[in-house]
Amino acid sequence: MSQDTYQLLDLIIAFLSVLTTAIIAWVLFDAGKKSEKQNYSNELKNLWTQIDSTVLSNDLLLFEADKMIHPNKIGDSIEVKRRRWICYMLQNAIAITQTGITKKLIPDEQNVQKSLDKTLSTLAKNPEYKEVSEYCHEKELKEKCDAIV
Predict the structure, then answer these.
(1) Which string of DSSP letters, residue by residue, matches 28-91?
(2) Contact 147, 132 (CB under 8 A)
(3) Torsions phi, psi of 54, nearest 5?
(4) What pLDDT, in 10s, does the model give residues 110-149?
(5) How many whole angstroms separate alpha carbon 105 and alpha carbon 97?
(6) Alpha-carbon span 74 to 76, nearest angstrom
(7) Is residue 63 over pLDDT 90?
(8) Which of 28, 68, 121, 129 is the 20 to 30 Å CA partner of 13?
(9) Pair 73, 91: CB distance under 8 Å
(10) In which region does residue 104 sit, left (phi positive, over 0), alpha (psi from -120 to 50) or beta (all else)?
(11) Other C-beta atoms lying within 10 Å of the C-beta of residue 28
């Protein structure tokens, strides 16, 4: 082989090395962002679970939390407020499950989706749940709930 051939091979190897390094860096960066988003989502879900547990453990906290979210329903009984908060908890559980299905984090996602749709169709017929669904921030779930008569 001539000197020019060796230089060309060195150049190709150097180029492939830089390209490989760039691809690995991009893959690691992308995986890190996805992991960061998932961790954030998990922490947010854990926070809501703690809030739900705390609020439902104390009638005064439940009264005050409900008053902030529903100031026009201060006169509702504590049982109505508790049922309304349970609807929020169910909505969060459904949203978490839907996110897991959408992001392919749940095994057997087709059966889980069927079960989730059935649960949502039952819940959406409940006037208390239907009202709470207006506060749902997941567009797809809100639309499904609105479509159920």
Answers:
(1) HHHHHHHHHHHHHHHHHHHHHHHHHHHHHT-HHHHHHHHHHH-GGGTTS-HHHHHHHHHHHHHH
(2) no
(3) -65, -50
(4) 998 899 889 988 888 888 888 888 777 677 777 777 777 5
(5) 9
(6) 6
(7) yes
(8) 28
(9) no
(10) left
(11) 10
User: C-alpha 29: how far from its chain's center?
Assistant: 22
Tokens of 81: 């407020």
Cα–Cα dist 119/113, whole Å:
10
Any idea which residue has 């407020």 for tokens? 81
The single-letter code of the amino acid at 2 is S
Q: What is the pLDDT of residues 72-103, one digit of tens each?
A: 999 999 999 999 999 888 888 888 888 888 88
To which residue do tokens 């239907």 refer?
130
- 93 CB-near residues (< 8 Å, 6+ apart): none
Rounded CA separation 126/17 (Å): 61
Structure tokens at 10: 């060195």
